[in-house]
Design goal:
- Helix content is 26%, strand content 31%.
- By secondary structure, the chain is of the alpha+beta class.
- It has an 8-stranded antiparallel β-sheet with strand order 29-26-28-27-31-32-30-33.
- A hairpin with a 5-residue loop joins strand 31 (491-493) and strand 32 (499-503).
């Protein structure tokens, strides 16, 4: 890294996430963005066969077997003198909580839409999460090499369902077998689609008036009509409106055919924001942390154990919010625990290298043995507390049963470790020895079961629990104690030791809310609140 000031360096960071409905092509796009930037020699498609074609961002066995992403990963690469930190979020809706945590570390997002389907339910939910944090969204409409909806229909769909103004930066020449490329509405150049070349589209541009020589008369006529309509009826791109989350610039292409990838990379370099100011409590008073601040600070948005099956490793993903970090620095948690960061990691999927320095906007991995948790804040002074990352009430509850009762301590360690990662939530009933695990969806339970078996060698059955809902209890200590004393069989503690009401039905929750008006039964809990 060049020896420039930290102020110059943090401004060169672009930290972004990719969000989409399952099967919209998110992982394929991720691979080809890395390929276009020169970070990998071969892009591994999700359904490719053979170890050398495995998708680089999907490292868990269950991800490779099923062709889905179920764990957030971080990939760092460089393009046009900028450092990009790509946060690859889980593509399956059962892992929405992991996705939310990852989005807390992103300064912008790419929304990937299937050109034949437009905005789908999962996309809608993810955009709502982006809105909670005012994350600007850039749209990539994928799979133009297949039959697609008309471009104006897709733009209307985005406006109607997501309440976002759309500014098309390109306009496609048909779709499917007739797809001929895209017109760049900013430069008035045509980028032809050559499906047999298999290379990136950068540099293959011709002036707009020469597009007719490359397209059939009917496709060229459609393109002329579409571009004229776009220029007359669609709003021009407004950088401020985009950064405030009101407008999305729209690009078109095919991730599978590597078309439109370089243009997307350039768009991120040109218009995506760098590190942003973060709200925090500083010395117990509300404040802000700016990326140009001198004190090194950041927050843990993810913990991952056993990424390397040969080592019982445990890595905390730290998003730096300010300062120039140097290897060997001493940092303190907001709880006052000190640690020396002697082996910080920069990530490329499961590949890693030691980071000698890092800046605001970067994501580094900190190996630790259980000291760091999701939601922890780190700083040189230990007096900075970033806004907490919430846990959401699980929708599925399961009871863990061991085949070998003598391994109860091993099970406790395994379930606690996975809960600290955020794979599932763990509840310990006050009465009884069984652990209750909670998840948003069934796939989380399956991932947990596989990891418990593979990484910890335990034979565990996750059977139906006698409870349907979990709610955190908030109120005075006296009221909580009275409620717990009357509902001992339904009281548990989460991994932080906070009280949880395990209810048999939604009616039981409603009844308790009526009978105990001074208590709150919460669907979400912020660890740092």
């Amino acid at each position: 890294m060049s020896a420039t000031s930290s102020g110059e360096e943090w401004a060169k960071r672009r930290t972004y996430a990719i969000i989409s409905h399952p099967d919209a092509g998110k992982t394929t796009l991720t691979e080809n963005l890395l390929f276009a930037a020169g970070s990998i020699r071969m892009a591994g498609q999700v359904r490719a066969r053979g170890e050398n074609r495995r998708t680089r961002s999907d490292w868990m066995k269950i991800e490779q077997d099923r062709g889905i992403s179920v764990s957030a990963s971080v990939m760092t690469y460089e393009h046009r003198g900028l450092t990009f930190n790509l946060l690859d979020t889980p593509g399956h809706e059962d892992f929405s909580e992991d996705t939310y945590r990852t989005l807390t570390a992103a300064d912008s997002a790419i929304m990937v839409l299937d050109a034949a389907r437009g905005v789908e339910p999962r996309t809608l939910k993810l955009v709502e999460v982006c809105r909670l944090r005012d994350i600007p969204i850039l749209t990539f409409i994928n799979k133009l090499d297949r039959e697609a909806l008309a471009p104006e229909e897709l733009l209307d769909d985005i406006q109607d369902k997501l309440a976002l103004d759309t500014a098309p930066m390109q306009w496609p020449a048909a779709s499917g077998k007739r797809f001929g490329g895209v017109m760049d509405l900013q430069t008035n150049e045509f980028i032809p689609f050559r499906p047999d070349e298999g290379e990136m589209s950068s540099g293959q541009r011709v002036p707009a008036d020469q597009a007719g020589k490359l397209l059939s008369p009917d496709v060229y006529a459609e393109l002329q009509e579409g571009t004229e309509m776009a220029r007359e009826l669609c709003p021009e791109f407004n950088p401020q409106s985009y950064r405030e989350g009101h407008m999305t610039p729209v690009y078109f292409g095919s991730a599978l055919r590597r078309f439109g990838i370089v243009e997307l990379l350039d768009a991120l370099a040109d218009i995506a924001p760098g590190p942003q100011t973060e709200k925090a409590v500083i010395r117990k008073a509300p404040g802000e942390v700016t990326p140009g601040g001198k004190e090194v600070s950041g927050f843990v948005f993810k913990v991952q154990a056993n990424m390397d099956p040969n080592h019982r490793d445990r890595v905390a993903f730290l998003r730096l919010a300010s300062g120039k970090f140097k290897r060997g620095m001493k940092l303190k948690t907001d709880k006052g625990k000190a640690l020396t960061v002697s082996s910080p990691i920069m990530f490329f999927a499961q590949d890693r290298e030691i980071a000698d320095e890092a800046f605001a906007g970067d994501v580094i991995g900190i190996p630790n043995h259980g000291l760091l948790r999701v939601g922890d804040s780190l700083s040189e002074s230990g007096e900075i507390l970033f806004a907490g990352i919430p846990n959401f009430a699980p929708e599925i509850l399961r009871r863990a049963r061991l085949a070998d009762p003598l391994k109860a301590k091993h099970l406790k360690k395994a379930l606690e470790s996975l809960a600290e990662e955020g794979v599932t939530q763990l509840f310990r009933p006050v009465i009884g020895g069984d652990f209750i695990v909670g998840a948003v969806g069934q796939l989380q339970i399956e991932v947990m079961a596989e990891r418990v078996a593979v990484e910890y060698g335990l034979d565990v059955t996750f059977e139906a629990a006698p409870y349907e809902l979990a709610r955190w209890i908030s109120g005075s200590d006296g009221d909580i104690e009275k409620f717990a004393d009357r509902h001992k069989s339904a009281i548990a503690e989460d991994i932080d030791g906070d009280p949880v009401f395990l209810a048999k039905s939604a009616w039981e929750v409603s009844y308790s809310e009526e009978k105990w008006p001074d208590l709150k039964f919460l669907r979400a809990k912020e660890r740092n609140s």
